[in-house]
Structures
1.
Amino acid sequence: QDYVRAARAKGLAESTVLVKHALRNAILPVITVTGIGLADLLVGAPLTETVFAWPGLGRMLVAAVGQRDLPVVMVAVLLFAVIYLLGDPRLRA
């Protein structure tokens, strides 16, 4: 990418280029895919919790949506937003 090439042209150390330029921009797709995997987990978790009669967060979140328990749903959305914000420093500004 151009920004990595520009950082190298400035004479920055390779580790600085990787950490501050390449990894920062590469982490966002990882977080997105992790979020999708977490959504799959939330769909699969209530099924597993129901089949094996285990108490868990998956069933609680599904029940909260079904009962329109907005504070629980809002906390889950807030948690995902904070994780996404921590992963992408460009969103902090």
2.
Amino acid sequence: MSPEFNIMPVRTNREAAIANGAITRCSRHAQLHPMMTFDGRYPTNFNIPKKLIDFVHMPASDLDRIMKAYELGPTRRRYYRGSLVDRLSGDVVFCNSKIEHQLNLLALFEFLGAYQVVDQLRCRGRCGVATDNVF
């Protein structure tokens, strides 16, 4: 592979992370920007920016395809077992039947650089507000 091919995903992903990191709060209009995968493509279900609310209401199969494309999850190469899981362990909102979907959303948002959104969702979760009620 030529060096130009390898630089494109790095540059694109850096720009997406900067844009995602600039999201300061959850809102219906905030958009999360996709990053390229290792092969220089976007995930099938996430090739253009999507509103945060679209992820909350996204079917589990679509979210799983995105997680697979980024190799995120407990049985995949990248697993946020470290700080993310430790930080979520005491959150009230994650003690319901939607735990896996919510954890996947937070792992995806964190992977994409939307740290302020993750922190805000965690804070609201501790206050007893479910993820689907924050927008």
3.
Amino acid sequence: METNKTELLQEILKEFSTIFAPNDPNSEQQKKVFNTSEKVLRKLGEFHGLQQITQNKLDQFDNLINLLGAKMDQLNEIYKVIDNLTLFVEHVKKIVLKVEGRVNETKKANSRINKIFGRSKKKASQTEKKSKKKERKRIGYRTNDLLAKYDLKIRKSEEEEEEEEEKNENKKKEEKKEKVEEEKKEKEDKENNELKGKKEKKEEKKEKVEQEKKEKEVKEKEQNEEEKEKKEEKEKKEEKQKVEEEKKEKEIEEKENKEEK
């Protein structure tokens, strides 16, 4: 296509040069026209090369956009996981705040008890430490339970996904197997039909040969009977002729005998 355009441009430039430049090919004006034509043609070639490079860059850019789209999908999945973890952390924070509130209430109660019963500061400190330790243990147990439940939920979700993938895989295998069986059956049916067709053609050919054979036998039989009838008729005719000749000879002989007497 580009070659045709270039050739067309050359023709136009040639016509242009013949109109506006002298016919003398050695003239300065004619040389300038041809030099200008060559420059234009070179610029067109460079422009065509730039078009090709630009198209390649656009293709690369499209590929980068597609790759970026795939990465964005992966990033969205990561954001979903982060959101779930954030909700879980918020839930744990609420539990921790409740525990801290209970610890503060315990502190206040211990303070009132110390004031009422005059317990020593050391005893109150020990009680507070024990209370904190006990509460920390309880918080730890509760947190471990929550983490265990969350981990169980995640594992259960993963197992369900694996089961779903396995079901889909098995379904694909079954569909592929059914397709193979169907293609095999179609192939067998086609081969059977071809064999059946060949067999039917063979039978038809055999029947045709038998029919032709019978017709030939009937024809030969009719010809033989006809020849036989002709032969018998000929023999009868010859016999009759012979009798007639003998009769004539006998009459002639009798006549001659009579004449002799």
